[in-house]
C-alpha cells in the first residue's frame, strides 16, 4: 500500500508498505527442509504486486536459530479453480487454559484462549472491513486478535489465539467472539464469566470421581486462582467426625482446575473400610490468607 510521511520539516516522501499479513504458521524442519500449505484469503487486493515471506527457525535445544526473507514472487489475481467452502469456522473459547470449566469465576487479569478450526484456514489478513478475529467485552470494547493467532504445527486448518486481558470489571461479564475463514464465512460464540476481587480465593466446582470409590479417587477442583501459587488440602472424615486422612498439594502456577488423587487409605496407610465419608476441600492462594472450604460426601464400597 502506498504511504507517505507526515512530517512538516522536510518534503513529503512516498513509500510502499506491506501492512496485511495473510498467514502466520509453523512447520517441522526435516533434513533441513520444510513445507507450508495455506489458502490465500478471498478478500486480498486482487491487483498484482510483490509479496514478501519472512521465515524464522530455531533448533529444538534453542542453541541455534536462523532468519530469512524472500520478496521474489508476485501476489494477486483470482484462482479459477477455487473450491467451494460454505462451512463456518469452529470457535472454542476458554480462560487461562483449555481445561473444561462449566462456570468461569476468575480474577481481573486473565488470558483469553481461542481454539479455531476451518478446512480453508482462518483469515487474519485485515483486508476486509470487519473481517477480523475479534473479542467484544460487554458490547462495548472490541479487541482485534489477528496478530495473536498462529496455526498448529504442520496444520493450517487449526490454530490458537492467546490474548491477555487485564483489569476486567468485577461482576458478570460477557465476551462475544467472532472469526472468519479465508472464504469469508464467519461464526460467533459467547463466553459468560464472573470476575471476583483480586484478593479472593473461591472454589467454584468440585467433581470427585469415581464415586463410589474404585481403586483411586480424583478430586477435580475448579477455582478462581489460575496462574497463582495455590495450596490445596483434602480432608476425609468418618461418620463419627474423626479425620482419617489429609492430603496436601501445592502448585506454583495453577491452572483452572487442580486435580488431587487419593488411594483410599488413612494417615497410617491402611485401606479404609466400606462406608460413607465426608471430604472437605480447603484452598489458599498467594494473594490471600483467607481459606475457602467446602464439604461433600463420598462412598467406599468393597
Judging from the principal axes of the Cα atoms, what is the shape? elongated
Total helices: the number is 0
Q: Could you describe the largest sheet, including whether it forms a barrel?
A: 5 strands, mixed
In terms of per-residue confidence, which ranges show pLDDT below 50 for 5 or more consecutive residues?
Answer: none
| End-to-end distance | 74 Å
The residue-averaged pLDDT reads: 89
**Proportion of residues in extended strands:** over 45%
Give me the CATH architecture of the domain at 90-195, please: Sandwich
String of helices and strands: EEEEEEEEEEEEEEEEEEEEEE
Return the CATH class of the domain at 90-195. Mainly Beta
Q: In angstroms, what is the radius of gyration?
A: 26 Å
Number of strands: 22
Order of strands, widest sheet = 8-15-14-10-11
The class by helix and strand makeup works out as mainly beta
Q: In percent, how helical is the residue content?
A: under 10%
Q: Can you tell me the CATH superfamily of the domain at 90-195?
A: Immunoglobulins
Task: Output the CATH topology of the domain at 90-195.
Answer: Immunoglobulin-like
Amino acid at each position: 500500500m502506498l504511504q507517505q510521511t507526515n512530517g512538516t520539516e522536510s518534503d513529503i516522501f512516498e513509500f510502499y508498505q506491506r501492512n496485511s499479513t495473510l498467514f502466520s504458521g509453523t512447520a517441522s524442519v526435516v533434513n533441513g527442509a520444510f513445507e507450508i500449505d495455506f489458502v490465500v484469503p478471498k478478500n486480498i487486493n486482487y491487483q498484482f504486486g510483490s509479496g514478501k515471506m519472512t521465515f524464522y527457525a530455531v533448533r529444538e535445544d534453542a542453541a541455534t536459530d536462523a532468519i530469512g526473507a524472500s520478496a521474489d514472487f508476485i501476489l494477486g489475481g483470482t484462482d479459477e479453480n477455487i473450491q467451494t467452502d460454505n462451512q463456518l469456522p469452529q470457535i472454542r473459547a476458554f480462560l487461562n487454559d483449555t481445561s473444561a470449566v462449566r462456570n468461569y469465576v476468575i480474577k481481573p487479569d486473565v488470558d483469553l484462549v481461542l481454539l479455531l478450526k476451518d478446512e480453508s484456514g482462518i483469515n487474519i489478513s485485515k483486508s476486509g472491513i470487519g473481517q477480523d478475529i475479534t473479542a467484544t467485552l460487554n458490547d462495548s470494547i472490541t479487541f482485534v486478535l489477528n496478530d495473536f493467532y498462529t496455526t498448529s504445527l504442520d496444520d493450517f486448518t487449526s490454530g490458537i489465539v492467546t490474548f491477555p486481558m487485564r483489569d476486567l470489571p468485577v461482576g458478570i461479564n460477557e465476551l462475544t467472539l467472532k472469526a472468519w475463514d479465508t472464504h469469508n464465512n464467519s461464526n460467533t460464540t459467547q463466553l459468560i464469566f464472573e470476575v471476583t476481587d483480586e484478593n479472593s480465593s473461591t472454589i467454584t466446582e468440585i467433581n470427585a470421581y469415581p464415586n463410589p470409590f474404585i481403586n483411586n479417587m480424583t478430586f477435580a477442583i475448579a477455582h478462581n486462582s489460575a496462574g497463582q501459587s495455590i495450596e490445596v488440602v483434602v480432608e476425609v472424615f468418618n461418620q463419627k467426625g474423626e479425620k482419617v486422612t489429609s492430603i496436601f498439594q501445592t502448585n506454583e502456577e495453577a491452572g483452572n482446575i487442580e486435580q488431587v488423587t487419593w488411594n483410599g487409605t488413612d494417615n497410617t496407610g491402611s485401606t479404609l473400610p466400606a462406608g460413607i465419608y465426608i471430604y472437605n476441600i480447603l484452598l489458599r492462594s498467594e494473594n490471600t490468607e483467607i481459606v475457602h472450604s467446602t464439604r461433600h460426601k463420598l462412598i467406599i464400597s468393597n
